[in-house]
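Entry 14. Ran structure prediction on the chain below.
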Amino acid sequence: MSVGKGAQVHGASPVKLPRRNFLHLAAGAAALPAMSRVASALNYPTRPVHWIVGYPPGGGTDIFARQMAQSLSERLGQPFIVENRAGATSNIATETVVRARADGYTLLETDAAAAINATLYDKLNFNFIRDITVIGIIRTPLVMLVHPSVPAKTVPEFVAYAKANPGKMSYSSAGVGSTIHVAGEMFKVMTGVDMTHVPYHGFGPALVDLLGRQVQVMFGPVAAGLDHIRAGKLRALAVTTTTRTELLPDIPSMADFVPGYEASQWYCAGLRKSTPVEIIDKLNKGINASIAEPEMKVRIDKLGATPTPGSPADFDKFITDETEKWAKVIKFANIKPE
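Output, structure tokens:
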């Protein structure tokens, strides 16, 4: 029995494709998963996104996350659901996101602790700079506050008074390793004053004891101290950023008296670094557009913060610089976690 030309019978050799055709087919098959990932990224998001916040509800980090979540929900057409997972100065939330799938459906909201914790903790199950891409930041200055019983009305007067009264000045913070704490330690290092650190469990108790004269100094968020400053219950000596803030236009910058001093609280949104670049770019552009809106600017102003648009590359450099700066302070002051 004959068979048609090109047909295959039992025991015959398989039909051989020319090598060029085979390579084309193989390349096409390999490209399918990549094309699928790109298509998925371009359609992102197609379901709710979970936004993990490293602190309890009500603080600046939580407020910023909720504002951005609402704005991105409206822009991208899917719910952005905020989940608070407080603990270990935001390390629990960061590790949760680092362990999540790199698909853009689990975001992180943390703050300057991301830069501080890298040195403060000897062993972390993640490396923030290596594992997280930051897609949005807002920054807020701190303000050096003293109780009115302290006779100093300027930073130079305070330094002179503290040096004339060694060991008699104490400053409060929201806890060991908080931004408020390391800002105070950097002031001590750069001015040579002797102050005792008194840590509290949160900003609220630290502020209460400053108002009650249990401590004399605090480096606190501008917005939180504003009413007390205006009421004369606390005295503002300087803001900790290199420029003045609109909320306290008459208060000078610390850098005017202590060259090179700069400290700020900042809140950042991020996600796993291995997330498809199309998703990272979409979220980054969405946040940049949101913080540029007049209504959002008003909300951010109420936090005493400044919108900081930029690219993930810009934010990576900022986080790296902050990590290096606080590492020097933590090592010099020998700060250990509680």
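The mean pLDDT is 90. Will compare against last week's run tomorrow.
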